[in-house]
Structure prediction request, 342 residues.
Amino acid sequence: MKDFNKTLQTLVQECGGHSACCIKIDNSDLKKTLEENHLISQNWLASGYAGDMNYLERMLEEKSNPQKAFPSAKSIIVITFKNKWGDASAEHNFPDVQDDDLLGYISAYAKEQDYHKTGHQVLLKLQKKLEDNFGEFSATPAVDTKPIFERLLAVFGGLGIRGPNDLLRTPDENVRVFIGSLFCDIDLPEVILDPKMPFPCKFCNNCVENCPTDALVEGQPFNSLECISYLTIEKKGTLDQSESRLIEEWLFGCDWCTVVCPPKDKEDTRIPISLEWLMKSSAGEIKRIIKGSAIEYAGVTKLRRNAAAILKQSDHPKAQELIEWSLKNLQSPLVLEQLNQD
Ligand code: B12
Ligand code: SF4
Ligand code: SF4
Prediction:
């Protein structure tokens, strides 16, 4: 096909995505980049930065060898898509909060339907459109959960650069994009882009300056163990005193290193949650509200564990009352253990 790049960008946008590249799975430069990354990742894992995310170690071999992980694939289409991330009109199902409520916050990226689902929808539509041009082919869509170094592939394909916040920064939509991949069992023309960034990250550094913990420290590897997103979503068991302080008022995820990526968000796009509502509503009601969103991955117990950690750190007049109510009425051993922590 003559200008496959142009076609690919048009098709991905028609399908609801933002940008796309296409990499041959046997590209020798990709192999070299993955080999280098493999060593760096091994060291990172050996330093304990993965914490409770045991799946990162389990998946490492496959992540570094896409040809083994996806044996029939010939080309990888990598896309970015937004799912209204950072858009003030993005919606959520949580009830409104009142001025005097004691609040916790959910990261803005969890608004709208689960981005995993949106990404799969875009990728499947894109496959159908490509089949109109190239004939039917099999393909495996992947967003987040399959063994893939998604940011590495996106950077290799020129969709953007890796920012100091360890995220893919695109030339026109900053870091607030998700990544998806389509492993295609067909040889497609390669599209490796040359991202034209409006300014280099070294002139900004907002993300590092606004990270409230030591997760992002210049010149050091990304430290998940200090990242609020890790602590609120992935950390198992209770949060100790210092972890409870680190999470501030976050119940799920953290926005500080994304909302400051120029153009900075003008309004607060976090989801405010009444902690009283979170503790006192039935688990069934909360499950109904988070169903189909990215928050479902954490589940009700983890949201309440995080709420318990926030309450224990709070000097809000309502906090002690809510702790006492929760100790009497909630049954989850994890939440009770968190509430009983000194
Ligand atoms: C595990 C995970 C997390 C963990 C760990 C985060 C991390 N930075 O690795 C936690 C829970 C903390 C997390 C948080 C978030 N995540 Co997350 N996460 C992932 C996941 C599933 C795997 C990432 C991974 O493998 N990490 C492990 C390390 C070993 O791998 P690595 O990141 O590639 O890092 C190595 C290389 O960079 C290498 N390296 C460093 N320098 C160099 C230089 C060269 C030349 C080379 C070759 C290599 C190299 O060293 C690093 C360490 O070994 C990806 C999806 C995926 N499958 O990729 C989403 C993903 C990265 N997450 C995403 C998002 C949105 C988030 C949050 C913004 C959510 C939120 N609002 O709370 C935060 C952001 C936190 C942050 N600043 O990173 C998006 C990011 C989109 C983007 N624009 O980049 C992804 C891509 C999911 C998706 N499909 O869109 N996440
Ligand atoms: S998500 Fe929050 S804690 Fe984690 S690196 Fe970004 S700003 Fe720091
Ligand atoms: S906040 Fe600034 S330094 Fe960080 S990724 Fe965005 S542009 Fe780069």
Q: What stands out?
A: The chain is about 40% helix and 10% strand. The two ends are 66 Å apart (CA to CA).
